Structure prediction request, 346 residues.
Amino acid sequence: MVSVKVGINGYGTIGKRVADAIDAQDDMEVVGVTKTGPSFGCEMAVRKGFDLYCTSDDPLMVSSFAESRFECKGGLKDLLSISDVVIDCSPGKMGADNLEKYVKAGVKSIFQGGEKHSLTGLSYTSCANHSENYGAQSTRVVSCNTTGLSRTLVPLYDHCGELKVECTMIRRAADPGDSKKGPINAIKPVLKVPSHHGPDVMTVKPEIEINSLAVAVPTTIMHVHAIIADLPEGHGLSTESIISLWRDAPRVIVMSGEENKITTTAEVMEMARDIGRKWGDLHEIFVWEDAVRLIENRLYYFQAIHQESDVIPENVDCVRALMKMEKNWALSVAKTDEAISKYYNI
Ligand code: NAD
Prediction:
């Protein structure tokens, strides 16, 4: 089987997870990952057997590795020269500079949700617009929140053909490993109304009318979305059939909070650790079955998003779209998820 060569630029929270997910697949391989300089992240890459490159081509930065125990194979240019596609996992807002380098090197590129849609003019979620991204040169895997909204709203839209949504994003203040951000004792509303999160869904599914409000709360483990969706007349759905629709949708878990004693995000994360997910990740969106309620045409539900991990398998599918490896999104999703399960033996 031809193996597509994937470079990962930025080996942080998202980059290290994406690298493992790519490594798990039999139709693509990680040809190298970048770090700004020697750090524990380099140790992780070396243990995994990934070649290390520097995020920069500046000889001073490249040579900073020489004083450490880590062998650096070169700068970003060197990594790009052996890559078919690069997954940019650099901190948000570095996209414009990096895109220029990828274009110059003639390498396809995938950005993350910290970049704006306008950077590439194209965005991606597996269930919403895989085929629009087929063969594209450059795209952006949308943020964890937008990915989470797409997972439950796109199947609903596909059934109903029309959907109006209002949602409130109750956002974690920071990633667990992040010591710089807050709030630690406050609830912080996003004063730009509507917030960008809901409307970002329209970059992958413009047919869904959606707005959102957002607040940041002092927790680090998950986001929660409180969603109200108006379905069109004649939708033919019930609370039970919506639950079945989501049970059949990939990367969505629907569970009763009361029966399973999983009524908070802390318990959802404990479940992810109990079932052996690496880093305690949960690639799936968690919907509390008890709180799904359709009243006439109005649907109410809550879902929880593991911010560091729901976008990880999407990056793998996105490689398959850009590199024209699989046109059918559902087949790509099944292949990705099976390979990840085998890789981690879960
Ligand atoms: P991070 O800070 O954890 O990791 C970024 C990595 O990039 C670090 O290893 C850093 O050293 C490296 N880096 C620094 N400068 C660089 C450069 N010029 N070029 C390449 N790499 C460079 O950040 P993250 O949380 O992994 O976020 C990466 C992207 O993913 C952002 O766009 C972010 O918005 C998005 N995202 C993050 C999350 C999350 O929960 N952390 C979820 C979804 C999407």
Remarks:
- Residues 144-305 form a domain with the Dihydrodipicolinate Reductase; domain 2 fold (CATH 3.30.360.10).
- The mean pLDDT is 97.
